[in-house]
Write a structure and sequence with these properties.
alpha+beta; Immunoglobulin-like; Jelly Rolls; eight-stranded parallel β-sheet; seven-stranded mixed β-sheet; disordered N terminus
Length: 839
């Protein structure tokens, strides 16, 4: 979609387009049921983790939550804590964002959503494939909010040998016969915004450089002082000629019709400006010189076009760029997802406050499993970051297309957590306030590839009422899981997630979920009214995509839908009713994308209760150093799950005969009890009970494999556990990524720690890595600068009384934000073992 003017764009973004066209994301001030607010406005904030360090919190709408530790005013850049203390210039000084200013939402009210060519085609792209994907998006994703079709590194002039990927912006690759202006027109004619990639500070065509005096850095002998990935030649940021050059370049791209520009290699540019001062016309501070080039780029683009900085974290562009590609390039596979996960956790505090963060594209195709595809989609849907698909879209299966649709478009989510995460947090809590409905959309993740997991969600940790039932609806599986006090435990396969809608029960029939979007109401629900016998409302539905509203009943009561109807502007629509004990579903089908008014009424129905029996065979297996997994025998007779108590206090419900207990004092005696329960919350009757008294310290083995423990903190790329090939043998251990640091809480339980510092067989680098072990802040062992050629280095050290163990890996010139894992040294901590006695 073209962006001819600010008023025209705002009109396009705030209206529902005609039938067959997409409903664009509505700015907060225009969304029905949302209080009118003009950004920037004060927002709730957390400044540090709570007792549950696994919790990652974000908000959508005018949310009030007991989890907030203060209020942040982005206009003043000041955070006021609940005790009244103030943190002035919070983003500038505390978070070290020198050029912070609140994101300008007047033109782009939410992060962009669309398609990027790079992660399928790379540099082997042609015009026909761009058109093919554009046509598919127009038919299959436009009505779901896809807005941008972005062409990546492939369009520019070919190299002298005919290969793709030069840094010459003066001509167009022959595989784009219509030219870039012609292709932009095609994309616009389909109703989308054309986007284009460029590495503008570089140039590889010597003739362009010769014809542009004063634009590029040169040594006295005429050669280039900066020959990098960005290009053989680098723009001189200090010269007036380079200002004119950059402005002209981007004026040309804008003139072609490109309204979304992705500028790549930006950290390289800033670094090179620090190294090449001697060759500049007017040397100066590298960050200020760099911003001068961005000012020229912005002047060429104008204010109404989107500018994305890529890659890593080019914070020097804050206030000029609309968004930032905060991490490295993803790859197809689980490792690629982890590359998107790291910048999400570490930089999300900037999103929708300073600019729109972009963790790189979302990949959904095989060999990613459907579980892994849902995990990647859930990362996007729960955070509202820039959302770009990058598969060959016509090749996706219908199951994967459905996953794609459930997270389009990006919504107006922003963090509650205004600080970087230092571990791979597994509980993501999106708090939503919409049309008078306050609910949580919670993602529970298992990032590990080597084992399943069970994760506990405690209502108190989430700021929900702990002693009242909370409705639980599973979004990806589209099923109601009941209403339970205190919390629930969820079983998770390796590399999988569950996404739940959590709605505190008010003792009446409640809408608990819709199926259009992972936010479960925000994108689709426009009006909602409760009546004596039911509900009425208005929803935006997508053509030929059955729209479902899920209603839950007060626990222990049953109802059924007695009548339901749906109507659009052109007449009644077909509806389908599904009745369940405890919940019911209304399904609406429309032949076109449009707003639909609907009504539903309920009447009482009979309720079936089964008397459950006590479980048997309760055991406790230690897990980590602060927990146990309770296990008991499967029951022959019927139940709706089990409720678990610790020291007399209800923790929550599990549907399977197991439950995780974490955060235990190893020296304290605990009593666990398990009771079977029915859907109405009534527990087993009779004197029999499953009860176990234990002390964790007595259950712990004499040794513990470090890769099986959950780290308390992880920085850089962390140290994920996996199998390594070293000297043609498969060994278990932890990755030692350069500039990574991982911490484990040992609680003073062990006396020795042993491991082997080594390199994988696949390592091609000659860069030495220094392995360091610290205990309670004191260095216990270091390998020195260890090269692969020197062979592995084995060690055994005394850790008696150590409470926190830190593993650190350092390589020359590596930084924590570096995500170039393919080219970094492939080092590892092999067979890391803790022992209570010397082994």
């Amino acid at each position: 979609m073209p962006v001819p003017s600010r008023p025209a764009l705002l009109l396009a973004l705030t209206c529902i387009l005609a039938a067959g066209q997409v409903k664009a994301e509505i700015p907060a001030k225009a969304r029905p049921g949302t209080p009118a607010k003009t950004w920037p406005f004060p927002i709730p904030a957390r400044v540090k983790d709570s007792a549950n360090g696994d919790l990652f919190v974000m908000t959508l709408g005018d949310v009030k939550t007991s989890l907030a530790q203060g209020t942040y005013d982005p206009a003043a850049d000041e955070l006021v804590l609940q005790d009244g203390s103030r943190m002035p210039h919070y983003y500038r000084d505390t978070l070290k964002l020198k050029f912070f200013k609140p994101v300008d939402k007047s033109i782009f009210p939410v992060a962009p959503s669309g398609f990027c060519t790079w992660y399928y085609y790379y540099q082997d792209l042609n015009e026909q494939e761009v058109r093919r994907n554009t046509d598919w998006i127009a038919r299959n994703l436009k009505d779901y909010g896809a807005r941008i079709v972005q062409i990546d590194d492939a369009w520019q002039a070919e190299k002298a040998d005919g290969s793709h990927g030069s840094r010459d912006w003066s001509a167009v690759d022959r595989h784009f016969p219509s030219g870039m202006a012609g292709l932009a027109r095609y994309i616009k004619d389909k109703g989308f915004t054309p986007g284009l990639w460029i590495a503008p500070h570089g140039q590889s065509n010597d003739q362009v450089v010769q014809a542009s005096p004063g634009v590029f850095l040169r040594k006295p002998d005429g050669t280039s002082p900066s020959d990098t990935w960005e290009g053989k030649w680098l723009v001189d940021p200090s010269s007036d000629a380079s200002q004119a050059y950059l402005k002209g370049l981007f004026s040309r791209l804008a003139g072609w019709g490109y309204d979304y520009l992705k500028i790549d290699g930006q950290p390289i540019v800033v670094e090179e400006y620090g190294k090449t001062q001697a060759f500049m016309q007017k040397p100066g501070a590298p960050d200020q010189l760099y911003r001068r080039t961005l000012d020229a780029i912005r002047a060429g683009l104008g204010p109404d076009r989107y500018l994305l900085g890529c890659w890593g974290l080019p914070v020097e562009g804050m206030g000029i760029m609309n968004g930032s590609r905060t991490g490295g390039d993803v790859v197809l596979g689980w490792e690629g997802f982890l590359t998107a996960l790291a910048p999400t956790l570490q930089s999300y505090y900037q999103h929708n406050i300073a600019w729109y963060t972009d963790p790189d594209v979302m990949l959904l195709r095989a060999p990613l499993t459907l579980d892994q595809a849902r995990v990647w989609a859930s990362l996007q849907g729960l955070t509202g970051q820039a959302l770009f698909a990058s598969d060959r879209l016509p090749d996706l299966s219908q199951e994967r297309v459905n996953i794609l649709r459930r997270v389009f478009p990006a919504t107006d989510i922003r963090p509650l957590d205004l600080f970087p995460a230092t571990r791979n947090k597994r509980i993501w809590d999106l708090k939503v306030q919409h049309l008078g409905r306050g609910y949580d959309v919670v993602g529970a993740f298992n990032f590990r590839q080597d084992r399943p997991d069970q994760l506990y969600l405690g209502w108190k940790d989430l700021g929900l009422p702990a002693n009242a039932p909370v409705h639980v609806f599973d979004f990806w599986n589209q099923e109601y899981l009941g209403a339970w006090e205190a919390g629930v435990a969820l079983d998770l396969a390796p590399t999988s997630c569950r996404v739940l809608s959590l709605v505190p029960s008010d003792g009446q029939i409640q809408l608990v979920s819709t199926n259009r979007h992972l936010t479960q109401g925000w994108v689709d629900l426009q009006e909602l009214q409760r009546h004596d016998t039911g509900f009425s409302g208005k929803s935006q539905v997508v053509k030929d995509d059955p729209y479902e509203l899920h209603f839950a009943f007060p626990r222990g009561q049953n109802f059924e839908i007695s009548q339901a109807s749906a109507r659009s502007a052109s007449g009644p629509l077909p509806v389908q009713i599904t009745q369940h004990q405890g919940w019911a579903t209304l399904r609406i089908t429309s032949r076109k994308t449009q707003a639909v008014s609907w009504k539903v009424a309920f009447k009482p129905a009979d309720y079936y209760h089964y008397p459950t029996q006590a479980p048997v065979g309760l055991q406790a297996e230690p897990r980590g150093l602060d927990g146990v997994d309770l296990q008991w025998k499967d029951q022959y007779y019927l139940n709706a799950g089990y409720q678990v108590y610790l020291d007399g206090q209800l923790l929550g419900r599990t549907g399977t005969p197991r439950f995780p207990l974490r955060g235990l004092d190893p020296a304290r005696k605990h009593t666990a009890e398990v009771r079977s329960v029915w859907e109405d919350g009534i527990e087993q009757k009779g004197p029999k009970k499953a009860e176990l008294t234990f002390t964790l310290a007595a259950l712990l083995p004499d040794t513990a494999k470090l890769e099986e423990l959950e780290p308390s903190r992880s920085e850089g790329r962390g140290a994920e556990p996996r199998t390594f090939s070293v000297a043609s043998r498969h060994r278990q251990g932890l990755a030692a990524h350069p500039a990574s640091e991982v911490a484990f809480d040992l609680k003073g339980l062990f006396t020795t720690f042993s491991a082997e510092a080594a390199f994988e067989d696949s390592d091609r680098e000659k860069t030495p890595v220094t392995f360091v072990v610290l205990g309670d802040g004191r260095e216990l062992w270091t390998s020195g600068a260890l090269a692969k050629a020197a062979g592995p280095k084995t060690f055994r050290i005394d850790v008696t009384g150590v409470k926190q163990l830190i593993l650190r890996a350092v390589a020359k010139d590596a930084a924590p934000e570096d995500d170039d894992w393919l080219n970094a040294p492939h080092a590892a901590w092999l067979d890391p073992l803790l022992a209570k006695r010397a082994q």
